Amino acid sequence: MLRSRIIPCLLVHQRGLVKTVKFKDPKYVGDPINAVKIFNEKEVDELIVLDIDATAENRGPDFELIKNLATECRMPFCYGGGITTVEQAKTIINLGAEKLAISAAAVRNFPLLKEIGHAVGMQSVIVVIDVKKKALLGGYDVYIRNGKEKTDLKLKHFLEDLNRIGVGEIVINSIDRDGTMSGYDYELADMVRTITDMPITILGGARDFEDIKKMIKQYKVIGAAAGSLFVFKGKYRAVLISYPDKQEKLNII
């Protein structure tokens, strides 16, 4: 098994760093580059940066932002937002990102994943799956476009297809838990782990370091990701960037 990682996930909206709750009401929390500088000092394992405007606005990736982030980052960096072509993917990797996070395009144009994998290496292709729990029948629906568009995909079948082509990693993002700090969705993690043994990162709802520890130990995830946990402090959600120190990480992983 690959070493598990604790991963801050940063959302970019109108070129600023924001945090949402259940994919709504983005709250400004600072400048992305300043956040990266602080995370450099804290020696984080990896960063995920998602431009939540790109697909919603039907535009491509913000290459200037990606270049600036990659230049500043001293840790592995995964970028997502607006990736729809092989050329875009190659440009992003050439700018310095190690991984590409693909969501809507993975649903709308599944063959693109293999094409990008052939161009930049399948280990760099990360598929982000945004899901929401079904109200009555159980299970999960797959959404795209910042949770605004429900797809007809069956999560189980989608995971099996991703397993078949061998993408580098799958990020499962719980819309219901996003920004709530109410704890990870362990039922979701259990279901996903039952279906696939691929590298998985879980995102959405992380409450504290114990929550991260439980997710890593119980489900052998490659990544435990969080947003609010690393940018807010206290019940009033004051903006404060944090990350476990070396001793805390030893107790978690």
In short:
This protein has helices at 32-41, 63-72, 86-95, 104-108, 111-120, 155-165, 186-195, 209-219, 228-231, 246-252; strands spanning 5-13, 16-21, 24-30, 47-51, 77-80, 99-102, 125-133, 140-144, 149-154, 169-174, 200-203, 223-226, 232-233, 238-239. The protein is an alpha/beta fold. It has an eight-stranded parallel barrel, surrounded by five helices.
Description of the molecule:
By secondary structure, this protein is an alpha/beta fold. The chain contains ten helices and 14 strands. Helix 3 (86-95) packs parallel to helix 5. The radius of gyration is 17 Å and the shape is globular.
Tags for this model:
alpha/beta; 8-stranded parallel barrel; 14 strands; 253 residues; globular; two-stranded antiparallel ribbon
Helix content class: 25-40%
Topology, number of strands: 14
- Please state the overall shape, judged from the principal axes of the Cα atoms: globular
N-to-C SSE string, H for helix and E for strand = EEEHEHEHEHHEEEHEHEHEHEEH
Query: Strand arrangement, largest sheet?
Result: 1-4-5-6-7-10-11-12
Radius of gyration: 17 Å
Percentage beta strand: 25-35%
Report the span from N to C terminus. 13 Å
Output the structural class.
alpha/beta
Q: What value does the average pLDDT take?
A: 93
Largest sheet composition: 8 strands, parallel, barrel
Low-confidence stretches: none
